[in-house]
Fold this sequence. Notes:
The chain is 3% helix and 50% strand. The protein is mainly β. Strands 1, 2, 3, 4, 5, 6, 7, 8 and 9 form a nine-stranded antiparallel beta sheet that branches. Strand 5 and strand 6 form a beta hairpin. The chain is globular, with a radius of gyration of 14 Å.
Amino acid sequence: MTSFQHFAKAQTEFKPPLIANENAFLGDIATSETTDPTSPISAGFYRLEKGTPLVYEYTYHEMKIIVEGEFDIADETGQKVHATKGDVFYFPKGSKITFTTESYGLGFFCGQRKKDAA
């Protein structure tokens, strides 16, 4: 039997690394890859600061909850949402999403992928 894992104060103390442009940060903090290599899920934080929009095409399914700040989120269908703390999103595999912010936003995500494969 595998025990649970606890990441104390992860929202305030984990600093995701820069992944794109000058203002997009993402880092995984947990994965099921070691216990379920066939269908792993990975979770972590995504932070965007004011600046260059991030356009991302999902190669996996992902859920995201906004935990701080705000995002403007749009997809190729024309759907647009001003997202704030507490909003939850499902991004299906194959969706192309544009993230922008006038200040900053922090989201917690859980995706159906291997660790660090975003």
